[in-house]
Amino acid sequence: MRKSKQIMAVFTLGAVFPLLAAATLITDTVDNTDGWANLGGGFYTASIGGLAPVSGTQFWTAANAVNTRGTWKLFSDTFVEESLKVTYSVGDRNDLAWTGDVTAFLFADVNGDGLYAWTERINSAVTTDRTDPVDGWEEWVDTYNITATTKTANNDLVLGKDIGFFVLSNIGSGENMAFDSLAIETIPEPATLGIIAAGGIGLLWIRRLVML
């Protein structure tokens, strides 16, 4: 009986730990059939300037614009949560210069119209890890420390609103930029990470008892 209870504890803890860890909210291949919309121009392609898709069958790109170009998508029924990590790929063609001017943010559909708006961007709670690409792709990572008081650029609360993502680039003549493969996931709070760590130690201890 004692061993059966120990085994049950092992399975219970094993089932709970993944729920406490990071959870993926969105994985998107950034194909034009996935609901992405252009902002001022750009197009989707399977191959150009030495670039191929990071995921899916296409990626977004723009070049030779002398103007702002970009793309956006709203993920209806997926909501802004606390502490989010956003990972995506930004690319540079090998036949044109890199633009060096990219703006990318999550946004919250605070007015409920299902559309992107510049004033809906969440730019007050983000730290970025971005390396400019050179003749290929680089993975960019943005971390959002969102709380109950986090607001959009227009001073509207974001928590619980439909979540979206956009990328913009002020592309000049002879310049380019590409974008692909978006993922958004939750980040466990420090207290939760402590529970996971402590539980992991307990799990090892219980497994050891089971082996006795």
From TrEMBL:
Pfam family for this entry, one: PEP-CTERM
Range of residues in the leader sequence: 1-21
Sorted UniProt keywords: Signal
Domain (Ice-binding protein C-terminal): residue spans on this chain: 186-208
Matches recorded under NCBIfam families: PEP_CTERM (TIGR02595)
Identification of the protein by name: Ice-binding protein C-terminal domain-containing protein
Organism (species): Pontiella desulfatans
